[in-house]
Structures are given as C-alpha cells and as structure tokens.
Amino acid sequence: MELNTSQSHPIMLETIAIRNGVVQNLSYHLKRMKASGFIPKTIMLDIPNDCLLGVVKCRIIYRQSIDSLCFEKYNLRRIEQVKLVEANNLSYNRKYANRESLNAFVNQYPLADDIIFIKQGLVTDSSFANIVIDYKGTLLTPKNPLLNGTKRQWLLDNKKIQEEDISVDMLLNANAIFYINAMIELGELCIKPSNILI
User: How many domains does the structure of the chain reveal?
Assistant: First the structure.
C-alpha cells in the first residue's frame, strides 16, 4: 500500500538531530525534502536556548514550504522484542507525516516493541529505523529499504556500511542488529537475533 499519494502535495515529515547545538546532516535532509517537493534552497533552524545541550529532535512538517517545526529533547527508545512481519505490498519511499499504515502493523503485535518488515523474503526496515547487521564481521544494510534514511545514506557515502540483500536467515544469524535513523547513531541501539519473535 502506498501512503498519502492521493494528494498532489502530501504532508511530509523530516526529523533532524541536533547534538549540543550542532545540526546534523542538514544537506542530506534538504536533498530528501527537495525530492518531495520542498522549494526553498535551505532552512534556518532557530534553536531554543534550552535545546543547545544534549540530543534534540527538530520535527519539521512541510509540503512545498514549512508548515510547522518544533524542538524537543530526545530519549532513545528501548527495544527488547522485535516481530518479523511480511508486508509484500507496503510502500513507504517518502517520509510522509501520516504513519497510520505503519503504526497499524505495529499495533497488531502488542507483545513486540517494534517490527521489522520482510518483503519478498528480504529484510527492509523496522517501523521507525533502517537496519544494519553485523554479519560475519561486515556491516550490511538492506539493498532495498522501505525508506532510504539520511543516516543510512551518510554511512554508505562514507563507506561505513555496505548494501546487500539480507535474507531472514542472515538476520537471524547476525552477530548484532543495529537500528539507525537521523536520531540514532550506528551502535547506539542494538539487538541480538535472540530478541526476534518469529
């Protein structure tokens, strides 16, 4: 299912990390925003004084221009159990503000803290992050994620990770499974295959 495509300019979401007052990977966010119809060449973030220390999430709602933005302190999620879910028809190739279809999958599995989507037998993403696995000492990320995240692209561009078709068997035999997104650095959120509910 494709999300929010019935509107000519759907409402989009961008989440930008600010670490100790420094905006992270802004050029990557702008590139994705422009691909979704954002017109301005840049954005200016007036960071509140109480958001200059620690990790802060800047949440931007936009279409062709910014509708709203807000800043909030970021707390890393805890993930203990993850469910694998087959979703062959799911499409989320843009970062839409409306996440109801993704959340509907999560809500079907109340015993799990999150889900990882499987399409055509291959690993894609979790409900809120890209996936990287340590497989036989190599850091791999799915070749065809649901959404090409900004952190994922930065890690690829800097040759920290490699793209690969990741089967369920590879996932279950990985040394570690890492979550990454704009707010989560590689290594900050890690689960073991034993955390996965089949």
Answer: 2
